[in-house]
Design a protein that fits this description.
The chain has 584 residues and is mostly helical. It has 26 helices and five strands. The strands form two sheets. The chain has a three-stranded mixed beta sheet with strand order 3-5-4, with helices on both faces. A two-stranded antiparallel ribbon has the order 1-2. β4 and β5 form a beta hairpin. α9 packs antiparallel against α12, α19 packs antiparallel against α20 and α23 packs across α26. The longest helix has 36 residues.
C-alpha cells in the first residue's frame, strides 16, 4: 500500500505533454468564451443558451483537471514553487473569462421567458437549478469590466494571502523537547495518551506562532477587507448574506440551528467539566486536554489496519461504499503521513476526469485518525454519488458538503461503540465521539462568532495579532463557557485554521453537516436498509437543489428548530452516558 497518493493518472508531472496541451486548450477555451460573449446580442435565445452551456462545460472539465492537479501537488509540498507558478497561470486564464461569463449570466437572466426555454430543451433542463440560481444572482453581478477586474485582483489579493498563510503554517519550525518538528506533527500530539506530552506540545505550538503571527494577521485583515469590499460593490447586506446565498440556504435555517445550539451549550459544558474533573483539573478543562483520551483505547492502527476496519464497518451498512473505500486504499487515493512542507489537517478533493477522489490526511495511527479517514472517505462517496451529473452540476454547497462525511463518522462510531464489551473501551469510544461533537458545536460556534466579530471590526480598523487573539479568547469564552480553564485557552486558533483564509464563514457548515448527518443517521437506525436508496438520492440532490429542498428528500424541515434539537439530543444522551461511565 502506498504512503502517498498517486497523481500520475491525472498527469505524470508538470512536464507531461498532456498537461501542456490542456493548459493551452484552457487558454483557447477562454478566448472562445470571450468571442462568444461578444456575439450574444445577435444570437437567438435558444442558440445562445445552448452554446453558452456547452462552452462552460468544456471550461469546467479543463479547470477541474488542471487546477485540481496543481492544488494537490501544492498541498503535498507547499515548498514546491512549480505548483504555485502553474496554479497562478491556470487561475489567470480562468479569471480572464470572469467578465464574459458574467455577460452570459446577465444576458440569460434578462430573457423574459428564460425558464420556459430551459424546459423546452432536454440538455438545458438538466440545468434548471443552475438557471434559477442565475436569475437570483444576476442582481449581484458587477457591470462592465467589474467581474474581470475583481477576478484579476483576487489573484494577487485574497488567493495570494491564503497561499502565504498555508506556506507559513506548513513550514514554521516548532521547537519541542530539544528537537525541531512541524506544526502538523505537534498538533497531532494533542491526542497523545501522556498528559506531559500533550501539555509540552501545546506550549510548543503556542510558542511557535510568535514567529508568524504578524504576517498571518496581515493575511487575515487583507482577505476580510477584500470580502467586505466585494460585498459592498455587489450590493450584499453583509458577508454573511453573501455566504448564505452561495450556500443556497435560508437565514431562517441558520437561525434555527444556532438557536438550538445555544440551548444545548450548557450540556456540552457539563461534558467538559466532567472530563476536567476526571483528569484532575479544578478550574475547567485546559485546552491541551481537550483531546485527551479517556478509558482504555491503546490500539494503534497502520494504514492497512485502517483499511480492514473501515471496509468491514461499511460492508454491513452500504456494500457499494465499502467497495469504493477498498479501491481508495488499493489504488493510492490517499496521502497518509505528516511531513515537512505538507499541508496540515485533512481534505478530500474530487478528481472528475478519473471519476475518483484524492484524500490528504496527517495519519498518526490513533483511532481518531481512522475516524478522520472515514470522514474524508464520506466526501469521496458523495463525489461518487454525483458522478452522473452534468459537468456544471458537480458543486454542492458548503453546508451540504459535510453531510456524507459526518454520516460516515456516525456509522463508524455507532458500530464501534455497540461492539465494545469492556466499559473502559466503550468510554474511550464515546469520549472520542464527544470530542468531535464538541468541536462542531463549541469550537465551530466560536469560529463563527470570531469571524463575525472580525467583520464587524475590519471595516473601521486594522486588527493586529494581539487584537485577533483577544477576539478569539472572547469567542471561546462565549462558546465553551466554564467548561474550559479560563487561563488555558487557545488564542491563536485564527492562525492555524485555514478556513478563515478561504470561503467566507466556512465554519457553520460543519455544525450544519454534523447535526444534519446525525438526524439522518437516526432515520437510518429506524428504517435500516430501506434508508440507503433515500440517502443516495439525497446526496445526488445536493448539487441541484437548495439546502431546504434537499432535506425534504428525507422529509426534514430545516427551518424547524425542533429538528436541530432532536439531533442535538442524540449528543446530549451520549453525554449522559459518558457521565455515568466516568462516575462508575
Amino acid at each position: 500500500m502506498n504512503d502517498v497518493w498517486n497523481l500520475e493518472p491525472i498527469y505524470c508531472g508538470f512536464d507531461d505533454p498532456k498537461f501542456a496541451s490542456d493548459l493551452a486548450a484552457l487558454q483557447k477555451q477562454a478566448a472562445k468564451i470571450e468571442d462568444f460573449s461578444k456575439e450574444l446580442p445577435d444570437l437567438a435565445p435558444m442558440d445562445g443558451l445552448k452554446r453558452g452551456i456547452a462552452l462552460q462545460e468544456e471550461l469546467a472539465k479543463l479547470v477541474d483537471k488542471l487546477a485540481g492537479y496543481a492544488s494537490l501537488r501544492q498541498a503535498a509540498d507547499t515548498k514546491n514553487p512549480e505548483a504555485g507558478s502553474y496554479m497562478g497561470q491556470i487561475m489567470a486564464a480562468y479569471s480572464a473569462v470572469a467578465a464574459p461569463l458574467a455577460a452570459f449570466r446577465e444576458w440569460a437572466a434578462k430573457l423574459p421567458n428564460l425558464m420556459e426555454l430551459v424546459e423546452q430543451d432536454n440538455d438545458l433542463a438538466d440545468y434548471r437549478f443552475l438557471f434559477q440560481c442565475m436569475l437570483e444572482s444576476s442582481r449581484y453581478i458587477l457591470p462592465g469590466t467589474g467581474e474581470a477586474v475583481m477576478a484579476k485582483m483576487e489573484l494577487s489579493g485574497g488567493n495570494a494571502w491564503s497561499d502565504m498563510q498555508q506556506y507559513l503554517t506548513s513550514t514554521v519550525p516548532v521547537a519541542y523537547r530539544g528537537t525541531t518538528t512541524n506544526l502538523s506533527a505537534i498538533r497531532n500530539l494533542a491526542y497523545d495518551a501522556d498528559p506531559a506530552v500533550r501539555k509540552d506540545a501545546y506550549e510548543a505550538e503556542i510558542a511557535c506562532y510568535d514567529r508568524i503571527k504578524d504576517a498571518v494577521a496581515y493575511a487575515l485583515n487583507s482577505i476580510k477587507l477584500e470580502t467586505i469590499s466585494d460585498c459592498q460593490l455587489r450590493g450584499f447586506a453583509s458577508p454573511l448574506e453573501r455566504t448564505l446565498k452561495q450556500c443556497n440556504m435560508k437565514r431562517e435555517t441558520l437561525d434555527a440551528m444556532l438557536g438550538a445550539m445555544d440551548e444545548y451549550l450548557p450540556k456540552f459544558w457539563q461534558y467538559l467539566k466532567v472530563k476536567s474533573k476526571a483528569l484532575g483539573h479544578k478550574n475547567g478543562l485546559p485546552w491541551y486536554d481537550l483531546f485527551a483520551p479517556m478509558g482504555k483505547s491503546s490500539t494503534k492502527f497502520t494504514a492497512e489496519d485502517a483499511k480492514t476496519f473501515l471496509v468491514e464497518q461499511f460492508a454491513s451498512f452500504n456494500p457499494e461504499e465499502a467497495d469504493m473505500i477498498a479501491r481508495a486504499f488499493d489504488n493510492a487515493w490517499i496521502d497518509f503521513y505528516p511531513r515537512d512542507g505538507k499541508a496540515g489537517g485533512a481534505f478530500c478533493s474530487g478528481v472528475e476526469c478519473l471519476g475518483e477522489s484524492r484524500i490528504l490526511t496527517n495519519f498518526d495511527g490513533m483511532f481518531t485518525d481512522v475516524v478522520t479517514l472515514a470522514h474524508e472517505l464520506g466526501h469521496a462517496y458523495h463525489n461518487f454519488c454525483i458522478r452522473d451529473h452534468r459537468p456544471l452540476n458537480k458543486d454542492y454547497s458548503m453546508p451540504l458538503a459535510e453531510t456524507a462525511s459526518t454520516f460516515n463518522e456516525c456509522v463508524v462510531m455507532a458500530s464501534a461503540i455497540n461492539k465494545a464489551a469492556d466499559p473502559q473501551e466503550k468510554l474511550a469510544l464515546i469520549e472520542s465521539q464527544l470530542q468531535d461533537a464538541a468541536q462542531i458545536i463549541c469550537d465551530i460556534y466560536s469560529r463563527y462568532r470570531f469571524e463575525s466579530m472580525v467583520f464587524e471590526n475590519r471595516q473601521e480598523k486594522f486588527m493586529n495579532a494581539d487584537n485577533l487573539c483577544e477576539l478569539m479568547l472572547q469567542a471561546q469564552k462565549e462558546c465553551y463557557g466554564d467548561g474550559l480553564d479560563p487561563d488555558c485557552r487557545h488564542p491563536y486558533m485564527w492562525v492555524c485554521k485555514s478556513h478563515y483564509y478561504g470561503p467566507t464563514f466556512y465554519n457553520f457548515p460543519y455544525a450544519f453537516g454534523g447535526l444534519f448527518a446525525r438526524g439522518l443517521y437516526a432515520q437510518y437506525e429506524q428504517e435500516g436498509a430501506d434508508f440507503i436508496p433515500k440517502y443516495k438520492k439525497l446526496l445526488y440532490t445536493t448539487t441541484v437543489a437548495t439546502a431546504e429542498d434537499t432535506a425534504k428528500v428525507a422529509g426534514i424541515d430545516l427551518t424547524d428548530r425542533n429538528f436541530w434539537r432532536s439531533a442535538l439530543q442524540t449528543i446530549a444522551d451520549q453525554i449522559d452516558l459518558f457521565c455515568q461511565l466516568v462516575e462508575a
